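for the writeup, i need someone to sanity check this before i put it in the appendix. the sequnce is what the collaborator sent (i think, or maybe the updated version? ugh). structure was predicted straight from it, no edits. if anything looks off just tell me and ill rerun, i have time this weekend
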Amino acid sequence: MPKPRARRFADAARELLRDTLFDSASELLEQRSWSETRMADIAKAAGVSRQTLYKEFGSRQGFAQAYILREAERFLAGVQEAVAKHEDDPKAALAAAVEVFLTTAAEEPLIMAIVRGDAGDGLLSYVTNQAGPVLGYATDRLGKILSEIWPKVPEHSVALIAENMVRLAISHAASSTATAKEVADGMAELFGPYLEQVVGEPGA
């Protein structure tokens, strides 16, 4: 049964509100650190009240986690496209996916804020020890992407690849020591043989 029109409008309005707040946070993070960015600043930049912001997210931590999840979804959409383009070459698919993620992350204010590592109030903790939901979401989404493209790969293998790729990609995005392509090629060299083994020959 279709949603009542009023409910559809409410859902659309809430989605617009959240996107506006996240986009406003991104604009602020281009100019300052996360520790210097107050919830009141985000609300003002978005043109809403501070009370509206807290009503939607509950707390600063709740906002940060939701913000990171939104960006993770954007990154994973690019990853899905990159993997799909190399369906018949698992190693190339892995390299392309990692390169897309790292290249996008390098241009994203949120990741730049994580890289800066604000003392005492950084975003990195939301992606690591405090962010089970963030890591879990990204791992589950990547697992579903891999399963859709290579449906015959065992569930255990998909989970193993997804979790380690996500953790390593986040680590490199937060503290990179090489170019996106160099990191991508290195991860492909590391995980490629296993991925090729579990995917098997195209059409097999």
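Residues 10 and 16 are 10 Å apart (CA to CA). The two ends are 41 Å apart (CA to CA).
thx in advance!!
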